[in-house]
Design a protein that fits this description.
This protein is globular. α1 runs parallel beside α12 and α10 packs across α11. The strands form eight sheets. Strands 1, 2, 11, 12, 13, 14 and 27 form a seven-stranded mixed β-sheet that branches. The C terminus is likely disordered. The chain folds into two domains: 306 residues, 3-Layer(bba) Sandwich (FAD/NAD(P)-binding domain), CATH 3.50.50.60; 177 residues, Cholesterol Oxidase, domain 2, CATH 3.30.410.40. β12 and β13 form a beta hairpin. It contains 13 helices and 27 strands. By secondary structure, the chain is an alpha+beta fold. Belongs to the GMC oxidoreductase family. Keywords: FAD, Flavoprotein. This is Choline dehydrogenase. Its cofactor is FAD.
């Protein structure tokens, strides 16, 4: 013990036990000669509440499991602000998300490569995707069958989701047998990060099975306050665990895997960011990196409540039915309690002229509302929810520190509808919602789209609705952009430019958003980072890094 608190040493320190961090630490610690320390701000879920898929209705927005950020008023949407959930427990957001497993389109990663991110094309990332999963339908070219992450088909399907798929096909969206297969474009059944009817978080999949490794240490309830440096070399970090100071020495380096919100926050708290903004808060700049916290990308879209004529899953939430389904889950691990939020997904083009599928549908076989105290409730009505979002937003928001206090939440400025192209794409998406609502068999069972103006009201009414109703889809990315240019926060090898022994490996490195939910891509980034960091740690790599720093 030192006067400043406990002292811990490791070769590599991983900050954040979310999707990328768990995948990364599991692979790095497979080398017995490398001591790996993982630090997570949240506490472990000792009761196993998060493993119950339906429990997300109780964990999202709950400070026990969620950072529960609130965004700043968005002037592009009439001053709207809302909850921005981010997981705060072992497993990170994979412990509280909707368990939707989508890898994105091959073209997404080829676009990263075309932007100068060598090594991130589809041919490069596909082996990582296959290596990390065990899918229900593995094959020799696209899906994995031996990886730690279980990816399962639904154990319970609601009829209206099947009707939604058929209506999508009738509207011209190709039918897909596997949305993670060779053809991303299409409509089909969702797959979930679920094992035997239980949520299979990144912690459950990657870290929990290898906790017996003597060179791996995982600590929860650790709030990292700042990184420490010797010049431009990262030496470790300062933190608190349960209020007690903790000094961590990183002999080989630190990897930030805290996600699109917390990773840039920690960089800025440590003096890596826009120098003048840091000085105003009393933070001594270590590296002037103006793009840290910029380039915030989020999927904007609509959550449209649909009133149906036939019973939806809302009818399964009465006390008697809920008790029956919980008992069914405990015995058989199936039923409504065992499945992800979305039953079916679609990736499709807003117009025939669109170069790639720029819209996504989700269908939830239930609808919910916000009740007293901000709690989400499921009313006893026959509701379903059609979710429609833009895949490739051109609008950009940003993050900024409120103060130099590590415990103060960072300010999130979404600006979801800042770019006219996003507004145009979502207007086309609204047309698609109406098209699905008017096409059988799904449309045949629809009473109304709640709150959606009729098409006859005109585009001005649509635009007003869009400004009032557009919401984030909980897929923030891009705030530590990866690229080959001097302005990028990290280079394509995930090293923070201008620093030594510091990497970022999470969705904050996205140079462009992907068509799909982000959890699978976060796992892939963690897996790829293990190879890149192992290469950097080889003999001779340190001398090469020093030469780069001197040249800079």
């Amino acid at each position: 013990m030192s006067s400043s608190g406990a002292l811990i040493e490791a070769d590599i320190v991983v900050v954040g036990a979310g999707s990328a961090g768990c995948a990364l630490a599991a692979r790095l610690s497979a080398d017995p000669g490398l001591r790996v320390l993982v630090l997570e701000a949240g506490r472990r879920d000792r009761l196993g509440i998060t493993r119950l898929p339906a429990a997300l209705l109780r964990t999202i927005g709950n400070p026990r499991y969620d950072w529960a950020y609130t965004s700043e008023p968005d002037p592009t949407r009439g001053g709207q602000s809302e909850l921005w959930p981010r997981g705060r427990t072992l497993g990170g957001s994979s412990a509280i998300n909707g368990m939707i497993y989508v890898r994105g389109a091959a073209a997404d990663y080829d676009a990263w490569e075309a932007m100068g991110c060598d090594g991130w094309g589809w041919r490069d990332v596909l082996p990582a995707f296959r290596r990390l999963e065990t899918a229900d339908a593995p094959d020799a070219t696209h899906r994995g069958g031996t990886g730690p992450q279980r990816v399962s088909a639904l154990r319970w399907r609601h009829r209206l989701a099947a009707d939604f798929i058929e209506s999508g096909v009738a509207c011209g969206i190709p039918r897909s047998a596997d949305l993670n297969g060779p053809q991303h474009e299409g409509i089909g059944w969702n797959q979930g990060s679920i094992r035997d009817g239980r949520r299979h978080s990144a912690y459950d999949a990657f870290l929990a099975p290898v906790l017996g490794r003597p060179n791996l240490t995982v600590l929860d309830d650790v709030l990292v306050e700042r990184l420490t440096f010797a010049g431009r070399r990262t030496t470790g970090l300062e933190a608190r665990r349960g209020g007690v100071p903790l000094q961590v020495v990183a002999r080989r380096g630190v990897v930030l895997t805290a996600g699109a919100i917390n990773t840039p926050q920690l960089l800025m708290l440590s003096g890596i960011g826009e120098a003048e903004a840091l000085r105003r808060l009393g933070i001594a700049p270590v590296l002037d990196a103006p793009e840290v916290g910029q380039n915030l990308m989020e999927h904007p879209g609509l959550y449209v409540q649909a009133e149906m004529t036939e019973p939806t899953a809302n009818r399964e939430t009465t006390p008697l039915r809920a008790a029956w389904h919980l008992a069914r889950w405990l015995v058989r691990h199936d039923g409504p309690v065992s499945v992800p939020t979305a039953q079916a997904l679609a990736f499709f083009r807003s117009t025939p002229e669109a170069a790639e599928p720029d819209l996504q549908f989700h269908i939830f076989p239930y609808g919910s509302t916000i009740g007293r105290g901000g709690k989400r409730v499921i009313p006893r009505r026959n509701l379903a929810t059609i979710l429609m979002n833009a895949n490739f937003p051109r609008s950009r928001g940003w993050l900024e520190l409120r103060s130099a206090d590590p415990a103060a939440p960072i300010a999130i400025h979404p600006r979801l509808l800042d770019h006219a192209d996003d507004v145009a794409t979502l207007l086309h998406g609204l047309d698609w919602v109406r098209r699905m609502a008017g096409t059988g068999p799904f449309g045949a069972g629809l009473r109304s789209l709640i709150g959606v103006p009729p098409a006859t009201a005109g585009r001005e009414a649509d635009l007003a609705y869009l400004r009032a109703a557009t919401r984030p889809f909980y897929h923030p990315a891009g705030t530590c952009r990866m690229g080959p240019d001097a302005g990028a926060v990290v280079s394509p090898d995930l090293a923070v430019q201008g620093m030594e022994g510091l990497w970022v490996a999470d969705v904050s490195v996205f140079p462009r958003h992907i068509a799909g939910n982000t959890n699978a891509t976060a796992l892939m980034i963690g897996d790829r980072a293990a190879d890149l960091i192992a290469t950097a740690l080889r003999p001779g790599a340190a001398r090469q890094a020093e030469a780069v720093l001197e040249a800079a």
